[in-house]
Amino acid sequence: MELGLKGKHVIVTGGGTNIGRAIVHAFAAEGSRISIAELVPSQGEIVAGEVTAMDTGALVNVVPTDVTDPEKVATMIEAAIAKFGPVDVLVNNVGWTVDRLFMEKPRSEWEREVQVNLWGAINCIHAVLPGMIEKEAGAIVCISSDAGRMGEYREAVYSACKA
After folding, report:
1. Is 153 tagged catalytic?
2. pLDDT digits over 113-122, tens only?
3. Of 37, 87, 111, 138, which alpha carbon lies 20 to 30 A from 105's?
4. Which residue in 37, 158, 159, 162 is the catalytic one?
5. Residue-range domains of the chain with CATH
6. Helix 120-135 × helix 70-84 angle, to 10°
């Protein structure tokens, strides 16, 4: 299906596994230029190899990052732009949780969930938005979860972040 994404520069956070992998494959099928922003670069490299094997004309690179750190996010965005030019689409996909009852979770796990699931998205949006405003174009997609709509008794903080 032609969606007008051929040649568009797309950044997918957490693109090395699961839903992120599927998102990368979908943009690759459209012939996009994809930057996989990944905490574990080796996972992103596997997906990059899959994209190359698809032979769709898509281009892909892996940019290591930790979305919880605004400076590392800024560095990731700069590296992605250096490789493929201005960002057309940001997909905030990365997510993290521990499946445990709220009263059993230590505060460190709550804090990590908020840092990754909420601040991670905000950090990435803050880093790409100036370029999108400058070119008066761009799209930002934040992947949520049904947990944000319905709540999950073992993922209270995650659910709040994804609401």
Report:
1. no
2. 999 999 999 9
3. 37
4. 158
5. 9-162 (3.40.50.720)
6. 40
